[in-house]
Structures are given as structure tokens and as C-alpha cells.
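Researcher: I'd like a structural prediction for the single chain below. Treat it as a standalone chain; there are no partners to consider.
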Amino acid sequence: MNICPVEKFRMVMFYTYVLESIQFDQIYVGFTEDLKKRLIEHNQGLSPSTKPYRPWKLIYYEACLNENDAMRREKYLKTTQGRRLLYRRLKDYRYHQKHIS
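Model: Treating it as a single chain, here is the predicted structure.
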């Protein structure tokens, strides 16, 4: 059986992501292997923790080759220190969003 050369180099990525509620002043941090599918699930209300704040938009993500690294990053970004880092990282984006409204 021959394996397509492209398939041989296909890597599985794990994503730590940040969503922002379009209607409420809420953000959500999570991790997944399929970023597009996970965003759809959040917007369909399939996650109890994000359902009340729909709709969501993706505002930031990081990709990792290792699932544990992505999970560790998610846990860190949910801490007080991690939130501060995230807000500094997204400073221009958040400033722009507040001044458009």
C-alpha cells in the first residue's frame, strides 16, 4: 500500500483558542484538535458553559504539536496571570473594539 507523500507529513495540531462573545463582555478559553468544528459547536449551543453568551467569534489561537502542551496553555490562560498576559497580547484588538462601539 502506497501512502501519499502529503499524508506522510500530515501533522495533528492541537489548538488553544480564545473566543469573544459578540453580544456580551465575555471571553472563553479552550483547547481542541479541530478549531473550525469547535467554534461551530460553541455557536450551536452544544457547550453548556458558552451557550448563554452566543454568538462567539474566534479572536486568538495558538497551535501545538502536543496535546498536553495545548492543555497546559489553556489552563495557564485561565489563571489570573494568564488572563493578564492574554489581555496584554490582545491590547490593540481590545482597544479598537471598545472604540468602535
